[in-house]
């Protein structure tokens, strides 16, 4: 009788033999051929040594097969995105920066026959600070694929010499954000507008970094709806791009062979690593490719040494930041809807002789900082006692430099009734507030541009709304009502200092049309006190006319 041990041995032997003969496990559904040493061995050897037989997988072939399958899927997905965009829309534009991913998209477009046929237009922004090789490479691409690129550069500048004369060769050192606006964002937006773009293709990918970690193949227009952006490589990695480049042997920027993973402006683009030991030469990597292919590593060599005004490290040039597309289908402070009135060239030339105070906003609709202050300036204009007007400066730079002292955007200038032009100090975004605009006007004209009540609210860090015959100052804790005939009798019941002088106490004035003027007049002394005394004890007890029980309208 066979022992239990013998039975187990026979069972294991039978199982292993069946595995080797393909009798139990179905073969994988791929083209990969698995090689096992026992297949080629004599039958006797297989029988006598079944436990020692092992599957000899070709690991490299297995990895390559899976990578090939992945790349095939990504290609199909990207081409689908391109087809959807082109076949369902007119005026499709691809801004090509000649980086690796853009070279992939260019090749995909050629495979779909969208370049020679002109179904997709190629747009290039020449910043006048690119590597010399970049524009030469653009010409090579034109010849190879049979298209003509639409090239845009800084407004009114035909070449670098004209740019230097107009803006200075060191603009990027003096004001990097202004440089971005002049050399990148404005030409980019002007290009899209000139080409009447309905859909823009670009090479952004999720692995570029956290700023782009959640982008999808398609993005809606921020205004008006509809398809605005197509990101055909959204789900690709940087390695996928080079795998595709190697697979089809497509033209790529020559500086990849010199150690540059990504190519931008020569002034702030460096090799990675600095010694140039990693390269992509003849469609193969040399050196430790992980230094290029790690997550977010492609852009390591970009914007080197540059900082934003807030001190943070620069990672974007402004083209793809939120709001950059805002001007595709609208202006800022839209005519017919805004209280900020449009100023024509003829009106601007006569403004200094108008005999009245006017606040002028010199702007560019593509400027993200102009966009950022749009709401605050609209609020100010809605309540201002002086005219607030806008003038688009990017289309008439020489004129606004002379007329409104505008060297950049936005510029806020006061033209007083005597024709004097006074430029405001609003370089920092946090300075562009309703109360700051009002203070600028009053300091230079003596005119309280906003109602007294509104200015008191702004000074106290609260908010107010004016409409019809009532003034409402919003509250979050208590409701303060001044009834008819009691304008001067409201008691400071919120505690020492009263509600007007304590940031932690919110309040409401509710006035009818009869008492609005009386109330505002009674508060003028209060307003003067607030503005003249920068050390007003907002949160401390106050003596004299500011103590509990005193009339709020009788301060001195």
């Amino acid at each position: 009788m066979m022992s239990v041990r013998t039975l187990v041995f026979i069972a294991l032997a039978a199982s292993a033999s069946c595995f080797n003969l393909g009798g139990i496990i179905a073969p994988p559904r791929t083209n990969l051929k698995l090689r096992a040493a026992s297949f080629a061995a004599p039958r006797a050897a297989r029988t006598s040594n079944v436990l020692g037989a092992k599957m000899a997988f070709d690991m490299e072939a297995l990895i390559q097969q899976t990578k090939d399958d992945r790349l095939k899927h990504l290609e199909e997905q990207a081409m689908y995105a391109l087809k959807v965009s082109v076949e369902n829309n007119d005026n499709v534009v691809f801004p090509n920066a000649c980086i690796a991913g853009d070279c992939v998209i260019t090749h995909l477009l050629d495979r779909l026959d969208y370049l020679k046929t002109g179904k997709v237009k190629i747009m290039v922004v020449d910043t006048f600070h690119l590597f010399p090789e970049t524009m030469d490479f653009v010409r090579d691409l034109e010849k190879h694929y049979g298209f003509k690129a639409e090239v845009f550069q800084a407004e009114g500048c035909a070449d670098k010499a004209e740019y230097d004369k107009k803006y200075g060769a060191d603009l990027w050192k003096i004001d990097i954000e202004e440089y971005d606006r002049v050399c990148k964002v404005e030409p980019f937006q002007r290009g899209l507008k000139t080409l009447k773009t309905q859909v823009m293709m670009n090479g952004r990918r999720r692995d570029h970094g956290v700023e782009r970690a959640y982008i999808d193949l398609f993005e809606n227009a921020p205004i008006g709806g509809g398809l605005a952006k197509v990101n055909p490589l959204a789900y690709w990695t940087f390695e996928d791009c080079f795998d595709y480049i190697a697979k089809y042997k497509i033209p790529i920027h020559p500086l990849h062979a010199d150690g540059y993973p990504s190519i931008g402006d020569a002034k702030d683009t460096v090799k990675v690593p600095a010694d140039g030991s990693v390269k992509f030469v003849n469609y193969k990597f040399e050196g430790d490719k992980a230094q290029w292919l790690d997550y977010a590593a492609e852009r390591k060599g970009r914007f080197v040494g540059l900082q934003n005004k807030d001190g943070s490290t620069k990672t974007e040039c402004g083209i793809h930041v939120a709001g950059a597309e805002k001007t595709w289908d609208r202006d800022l402070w839209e005519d017919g809807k805004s209280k900020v009135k449009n100023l024509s060239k003829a009106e601007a030339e006569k403004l200094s002789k108008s005999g009245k105070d006017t606040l002028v906003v010199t702007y560019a609709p593509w400027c993200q900082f102009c966009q950022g202050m749009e709401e605050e300036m609209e609020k100010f204009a809605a309540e201002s006692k002086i005219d607030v007007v806008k003038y688009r400066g990017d289309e008439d730079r020489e004129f606004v430099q002379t007329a409104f002292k505008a060297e950049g955007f936005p510029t806020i200038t006061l033209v007083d009734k005597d024709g004097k032009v006074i430029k405001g100090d609003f370089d920092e975004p946090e300075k562009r507030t309703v109360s700051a605009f009002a203070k600028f006007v009053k300091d230079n004209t003596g005119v309280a541009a906003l109602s007294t009540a509104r200015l008191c609210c702004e000074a106290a860090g609260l908010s107010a709304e004016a409409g019809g015959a009532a003034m409402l100052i919003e509250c979050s804790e208590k409701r303060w009502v001044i009834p008819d005939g009691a304008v001067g009798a409201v008691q400071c019941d919120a505690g020492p200092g009263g509600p007007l002088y304590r940031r932690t106490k919110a309040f409401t004035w509710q006035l009818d049309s009869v008492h609005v003027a009386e109330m505002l007049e009674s508060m003028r002394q209060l307003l003067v006190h607030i503005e003249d005394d920068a050390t007003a004890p907002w949160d401390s007890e106050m003596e004299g006319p500011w103590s509990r029980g005193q009339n709020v309208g009788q301060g001195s």
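Residues 59-87 form the longest helix (29 residues). The chain is about 35% helix and 10% strand.
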